[in-house]
Amino acid sequence: MISQILELLASFIIWLISTLGYGGIVLAMAIESACIPLPSEVIMPFSGYLVSSGRFNFWWVVLAGGFGCLLGSWAAYALGYFGGESLVRKTIKKYGKYFLVFEYELDEAEEWFRKYGATIAFTSRLLPVIRTFISLPAGIAKTNFKIFSIYSFVGSLIWSAFLAYLGKIMGENWDTLGTYFHKFDFIIVILGFIAVLWYIQHKIKKIKKYKKEERKN
Do 47 and 168 touch, CB atoms closer than 8 A? Predict the structure, then answer.
């Protein structure tokens, strides 16, 4: 069941980018940064592969990934800024389960934000899971929008460049890899599977812990 979901996600990402080009990268990364778990670990490596095939320019791919991430971050920031913590929690409780978003993730993001302040908007872009949700507490805390945007964009550029470069390297060595794999899509699915499987396991563990603590309180 999980492998089918991952294949579907990977196929959607591949179709989106193949159809819309750079705009597909922007849209996919915006969705991911707006607290909807569409894995960047699939989006950017596939985009990097298209760089190696001559369809895309590497730096345009990196900029598209960074800009898309910034747009999604703005959406999450706006929800926190204008809605406040109460609305954010109500929204997550009511609709979060449909997007695999849970209240404990907001708690974690708020804890990180309290510890590290606005700079976490930069460092979180290089960390799995937390990178998707940090914009919510930044908005709730009404962090300086300009500083938040700069940190988010620079961190997102680094993350996008790293993943796109991996995809580019795999594409450039495709003649060697082709002996073992018939389609690059297969590699993308495997990478996505590993990333999202870890993500789901992390969520299950945290949900159990969160519910256990809730029952105690």
Answer: no
